Amino acid sequence: MIPAQTSTPPPPCWRLSRTRALCPLPIQPRAHPSQDSLSFHQMTLIVCLECPPMGLETLKIDDFQLHASTMRRYGLGAHRGRLNIQAGLYEDDFYDGGWCAGRNDPLQWFEVDARRLTKFTGVITQGRSSLWSKQLMHPLLHFLLNLFTQPVVARYIRVNPRSWYNSGSICMRVEVLGCPMPDPNNYYRRRNEVTTTDNLDFKHHSYKEMRQLMKVVNEFCPNITRIYNIGKSYNGQKLYAVEISDNPGEHELGEPEFRYMAGSHGNEVLGRELLLLLMQFMCQEYLSGNPRIRHLVDETRIHLLPSVNPDGYDKAFEVGSELGGWSLGRWSQDGLDIHHNFPDLNTILWEAEARKWVPRKIFNHHVPIPEWYQSKNATVAVETRALIAWMEKIPFVLGGNLQGGELVVTFPYDRSRLVGVTRQVTPTPDDHVFRWLAFSYASTHRLMTDASRRVCHTEDFAKEDGTINGASWHTAPGSMNDFSYLHTNCFELSMYVGCDKFPHESELPEEWENNRESLLVFMEQVHRGIKGVVRDFQGRGIANAIISVEGISHDIRTAADGDYWRLLNPGEYRVTVRAEGYNPSSKVCEVGYEIGATHCNFVISRTNMSRIKEIMEKFGKQPINMPNRRLQMRPI
Going edge to edge, which strands form the sheet with 13-14? Predict the structure, then answer.
């Protein structure tokens, strides 16, 4: 950890909220009439716990360690009795949201085999999952925290539910709190234990602590870091970002801009902590002379925005890592899903293509934002407006937004072309590039492409190399990824970095090890493809010139200084440059397999008409339209 960072909370206390501390905490169950499973009161407290969760939710506990007396069907077996596990869209026989007993009597039980002597200190039980919606803004009624008056040392722990709804059935999801007892001969645990050698601040940070950590990083690396904000949240909290570059604060000609952001869903907090760890790591490694990090910092302008939705995060943080459920804090303070709150430019482009308006009336890139969306009465989060202004201001080339609750990388398009179709593969013109970018992250993640790992909920993404087209998973109009691709030059992907949206603090070192290499490798992909500067014969850079690649019906544009970056896979490409008032120019550019974009510069000449206009304007006269002039001179 960076030495100036201090005041780490003592490990025995597990944050559930901020009211008071009790240990043990008795909570009595109470039936809730609207559910078909167990449901409980939840008190908001800071509870002193000796032991963290064992990992039913994070999948550290394998399926074969879970047993039950009976099950209603396979999809409701013991392997589905994990805290916060989600059912499939159709709740079929294989993927349902909890364990349900096959009989309703007091003899039913759910059992966890820890595979070694363990000090058990408590159990968290939760009702059976149902498809959540925005109306379920306070899902705490589904939880019961059961702390033991005295810890119990054993290998097995069995939960024997004694209350359920008269018209319902015995169904629940479980997390167990326990500490493995010392056992140097336990090969199974040593073989599966993941440790880190990085000395970083592994904890969940409040908003104030996040700001302080950013300041500490900036103080230790003032020459390569800069703190700035892109706007404010609904509650007035600033959306802070950290820039990492050898010349922070300025765009360097020919240097690509990269961004990571996290926390658009406030309860998906792992991405937020990963970005805070990443900025610490890069500062430390740069100071220690790590050549890989130095090259990345010197050749790239990197922006890290760890908390897009700080208001939502505050709600999740207040409750804690195991009691927030699946949706508390997901939305902005005014109830909007920030990640899917962008204008639907897909429909605008596809309708224009159907009417053959491209490129005559509308371009295949930089699709304009509709006027209704920009009005004050539009249902747009203030955080979304801040993000759009940020995206338009900086010429980003590549970006990733970190999500939670799954292990997969998704790429555009996120919306299917056919209306009413919930799942349909909908590729972009740059589909091959997007698939490579997604695979670059997934393949270097410790678990995403592991075919032997257990699926998080219902989908086995490892079969697809840990990647999927967004629309083929679930269609969503107005996504951040689609907007970034259609409105700016930036290729944006979503990384779902862990099954658990809000992992316990003790899990953060392992999650960092799972994602560290992927975070670095994906950043390095910003240097894949071609780059260059478009100039006129006087050497001046030409802004807003259109860069077209033959065979790919999606163009990009040059930045203010005339520089551009075009992500491409290895191969030969015919590239054409067009700019208003200039003659088009084409050349063949070759992209190799090594990291490092190929230089492909252009010098283009003015058209005769633009030169005439320039000369006439220089002397205060307007060009003469010759055909109209001849008509005027004809005798009547």
Answer: 13-14, 46-48, 21-22
Task: Give every CB contact of residue 58 below 8 A, 6+ residues apart in sequence.
Answer: 498, 499, 500, 503, 504, 507
CA distances from 30 to 22, 146, 203, 207 (A): 21, 13, 33, 34
How far apart, in Å, are the Cα atoms of 254 and each of 87, 332, 563, 566, 577?
48, 37, 6, 12, 17
How far from 301 is each of 164, 246, 272, 318, 513, CA to CA, in Å? 57, 8, 20, 34, 24
Distance CA 48, CA 111 (A): 25
Single-letter code of the amino acid located at 607: T
Question: Token pair for residue 24?
Answer: 């043990």
Token pair of 405 as six digits = 């609750």
Task: Return phi, psi of residue 508, to 5°.
Answer: -60, -40
Per-residue three-class SS string for 97-155: CCEECCCCCCCCCEEEEEEEEEEEEEEEEECCCCCCCCCCCCHHHHEEEEEEEEEEEEE
Bridge partners of residue 535, in order along the sequence: 541, 603
Token readout for 224 is 């390569």
pLDDT tier at 518, thresholds 50, 70, 90: very high
Residue 126, both tokens: 């939760």
Helix, strand, coil percentages (3-state) for the chain, rounded to 5, are: 25, 25, 50
CA angle 455, 460, 461 (to 5 degrees): 110
| Alpha helical stretches, state H, 300-334 | 310-319
DSSP classification of residue 582: B
Are the C-beta atoms of residues 280 and 217 closer than 8 Å to each other? yes
Taking only Cα atoms into account, the Rg of the chain, rounded to an integer number of angstroms, comes to 28
Element (H or E) spanning 349, and its range? Answer: helix 345-354
pLDDT reported for residue 129? 54
Which has the higher per-residue pLDDT, 21 or 434? 434
Quick: pLDDT tens for 102-155.
888 888 999 999 999 999 999 998 887 544 333 333 333 456 888 899 999 999
User: Running DSSP on this structure, what letter comes out for residue 53?
Assistant: B
**Unique residue bearing structure tokens 């240990």:** 23
Angle at 335 between CA 32 and CA 484, to 5 degrees: 135
Question: Which one, of 259, 264, 262, lies nearest residue 243 by Cα?
Answer: 259
The token duo for 506 is: 């003790």
DSSP string covering 363-412: -SSSPPPPHHHHSTTS---HHHHHHHHHHHHS-EEEEEEEE-SEEEEEES
d(CA 599, CA 590): 9
pLDDT digits (tens, 9 = 90+) for 219-257: 999 999 999 999 999 999 999 999 999 999 999 999 999
The pLDDT of 2-29, averaged and rounded, is 35
CA distance from start to end of the chain: 90
Pick the residue with more confidence: 614 or 581? 581
Closest CA to 430 of 466, 473, 398, 456: 398
Both tokens of residue 57?
A: 């939710």
Is residue 589 packed enough to be buried (19+ CB in 10 Å), middle (13-18) or exposed (0-12)? Answer: buried
Alpha-carbon gap, residue 496 to 474, rounded angstroms: 14
- Cβ-contact 71, 83 below 8 angstroms: no
Which region, left, alpha or beta, applies to residue 263 given φ > 0 means left and ψ of -120 to 50 means alpha? Answer: left
The predicted structure's pLDDT at residue 187: 59
